[in-house]
Amino acid sequence: MIPRSRRRFIADQRGALRQLTIGGVVLSVALNAVLFVQTYARQAGDVSVQDAVVSVIGAMFPSAGLKAPSSPPTAAPGASPVVVTGAS
Questions:
Q1: Of 63, 85, 81, nearest to 73 (Cα)?
Q2: SS3 breakdown of the chain: % helix, strand, coil, rounded to 5?
Q3: Is 62 helix (H, G, I), strand (E, B) or coil?
Q4: Rounded distance between C-alpha atoms, residue 8 and residue 13, angstroms
């Protein structure tokens, strides 16, 4: 007897291709955003990383109306400063 091969369903293949395509698009957009922020941070310094993130989001979603803050954040009056280090 000759074994019968399993029939492929076109609808199943289309669904899998759609998921792969959507995943590829999402990953490429995320990679582009990361590379943009990294390049911007290298050119402008670490202080303006927030501005780079805001500009990436503004470029992807122009109707969001995001703007960079006009002044850097300041501590609340009477609050004790918290020191953060890289050590764990």
A1: 81
A2: 60, 0, 40
A3: helix
A4: 8
CB 63 within 8 A of CB 71: no
Task: Give the pair of three-digit tokens for residue 22.
Answer: 């959507």
Phi, psi of 81 (to 5 degrees): -70, 145
Contacts of 40 (CB under 8 A, 6+ apart): 48, 49, 51, 52, 55
* Residue with tokens 């969001």, as numbered in its chain: 64
User: For residue range 26-78, what is the model confidence (pLDDT) as tens digits?
Assistant: 999 989 888 887 777 777 665 566 777 777 777 777 777 776 667 766 777 88
Residue spans of the domains in the chain: they are 13-64
